Amino acid sequence: MDIRFVYLFISGLIGGIIAYQAGLPLPFLLGGVIGAAIFVLCYERDGRELPKLTRWVRLFGMAFIGTMIGSRFSPDLLGLLPQFWISILSVIAFIFVAHFGNYQILTRFGGYNKLDAYFAGLPGGIVDSIALAEQAGADLRIVTAQHFIRIILVIISVPLLFLALKGSSVGSMGGESIAAANYDALDVAVISAIALTGLFAGRYLKIPVSHLMVPLLLALGLSIVGLVEINIPSWLQHLTQYTIGVSLGAQFSGISRQLLVRSLNMGFVIGCFMLGLAVGFASLLSDQVPADFEVLFISFSAGGLAEMSLIALSLNANPLIVALHHLVRIFFTIWIGSFLSKSVFKIVPKS
């Protein structure tokens, strides 16, 4: 292993430990992001560039999160799903409002051209949005940086908002309610087997974010039929947070200072706008569906699917409901975004 990656992970671990000792929300996720990002920015300030960290680090972390989410399944949820049709349809309305608002912000205040703003403002998954942007000939540096900053800011803001408003930490001591003190080696082995099986099986399936969803569905199915009953150790939750946090912080590599500052400014404005939308939709829907405001707020907060599901786990909220809403958001954002780019904006993919 490149010694620079050792320093990267050590920096992320130091950040996680500091955040944990300070009682911050999701300490090893947020601390891992901040610690790794500080190392990357300090290392590259003299013109050096850190090699890209393999995406498998984050994929492994997401596979374990999917397994944890699926293992929390309750058969009662099957009877609840039909009652969420209103909030699922509302996700589509959220996509249109969020995308239009983001586009206006990026063009009017960010100075982006229409093509870059269109794809940078999509409220969907970063990988799929970048793929669409590449086909259309948009500037991938702008699109990548803007999506990444938006996701990072939402991931950091949501647990801090809960800490400020409710006075309790999310993902530190508060999140341990989903963990079990009486776990054993078999629990760890079963979690690992499901996660790894789902991860590699997902490579051959064409469903959105299969590295998260296949382990989730596999764990869910095994839990439904009663073949497994998993006790999740708290240290495994922290390790998963840490792995994903470091991998996200490493993505600051190669971003110029000018682009970073511009993306941070626009990301802050867009983040506030989209979180405000999430508050509005959650407030309107909390009396219409069998979920409280907190669950709906997380469901409409446009961070990463895996990270928002992890926040739901830490709140002891129903992560399957949260994951369902985010999966719908990502799927329809890409479908609607692709359709509009060709039919309304007359964007023709590069040959």
Task: Kindly describe this structure.
This protein is mainly α and about 350 residues long. The chain has one domain: Na+/H+ antiporter like fold, CATH 1.20.1530. It is built from 15 helices and no strands.
Characteristics:
Na+/H+ antiporter like fold; 15 helices
Helix percentage: over 70%
Counted beta strands? 0
What would CATH call the architecture? Up-down Bundle
Number of separate domains: 1
Radius of gyration: 20 Å
Strand percentage, roughly?
Answer: under 5%
CATH class equals Mainly Alpha
The main pleated sheet reads as:
none
Based on Cα principal axes, name the global outline: globular
Instruction: List the uncertain runs.
Output: 170-178
Report the order of strands and helices: HHHHHHHHHHHHHHH
User: Number of DSSP helices?
Assistant: 15
Mean pLDDT: 83
Gap between N and C termini, in Å? Answer: 38 Å
Q: Output the CATH topology.
A: Na+/H+ antiporter like fold
In brief:
By secondary structure, this protein is an all-alpha fold. About 70% of the residues lie in helices and about 0% in strands.
Outline the secondary-structure elements.
Elements: H1 3-21, H2 27-43, H3 56-71, H4 76-80, H5 85-108, H6 114-120, H7 126-136, H8 140-166, H9 185-202, H10 210-224, H11 234-249, H12 257-285, H13 293-300, H14 305-314, H15 319-343
Helix pairs in contact: 1-2, 1-11, 2-11, 3-9, 3-10, 3-11, 3-14, 5-6, 5-12, 5-15, 6-7, 6-8, 7-8, 7-15, 8-12, 9-10, 12-13, 13-15, 14-15
